[in-house]
Amino acid sequence: MKNIILSLILCNGLLLNAQRLEPVEISGTEFVAIPYFDTEKTGDSESGIKFINTATGEIKQAILPKDNHVARLEHVKIESLGIDKIVVIIQNEGKSVIVKGTRQSQLSVYSVNGTLEKNIILDAEVGRDLIVNNVTGRLVLISFKGSKFAPEHKQEEIIYDLRTNSIIPSK
Q1: CB neighbour list of residue 157: distance below 8 Å, 6 or more residues apart
Q2: What percent of the chain clears pLDDT 70, i.e. is strictly above it?
Q3: CA-to-CA distance for 58 and 53, rounded, in angstroms?
Q4: What is the rounded distance in angstroms from the CA atom of residue 79 to the CA atom of residue 40?
Q5: Which of 4, 129, 131, 142 has the most CB atoms around its CB within 10 Å?
Q6: Which residues lie below 8 Å from residue 43, measured CB to CB, with a gap of 6+?
Q7: Which domain of life is it from (predicted)?
Q8: What residues contact 25, with CB distance under 8 A and at least 6 apart?
Q9: Minimal CA–CA distance to 120: which of 77, 155, 159?
Q10: CA distances from 120 to 10, 117, 124 (A)
Q11: In angstroms, rounded to a whole number, what is the distance separating the alpha carbons of residues 101 and 148?
Q12: Which of 89, 75, 72, 80 is nearest to 136 (CA)?
């Protein structure tokens, strides 16, 4: 029994480490963005993003709600369009967010110093997939609506304009 418990603990630790995201240097600035996952507080977990000013040592922390974690963190810089933002895809693993068989995800957009510019709760499960078009300044997220095993499960694309901080309706 002890061996089984020890094996489960080790496997859980390996899975958490495998999901850990790399820190992101915010090029052209003194900032770095670091996603974190902390389990030391009273057995509960806390996750979020730390924006660290490497020149001053100042840390700005964006704490995510319980059961949320950073699935993707990306610096998007398009000088020709004046775009310099941090794009974050947040997934929720809690049972309370399942809407009609679909887990909700969030798209959060931050300035390079860690100020939240936009937070959109998506009525769809968004994976880690996103692509940015450097000509238009828009990003495309690939989402899934409906349960993975239900007949109505389908892929949808969400287009987000980084200049206007708004979702562009699909046609």
Answers
A1: 140, 141, 142, 143, 170
A2: 73
A3: 5
A4: 40
A5: 142
A6: none
A7: Bacteria
A8: 32, 75
A9: 159
A10: 35, 10, 11
A11: 9
A12: 80
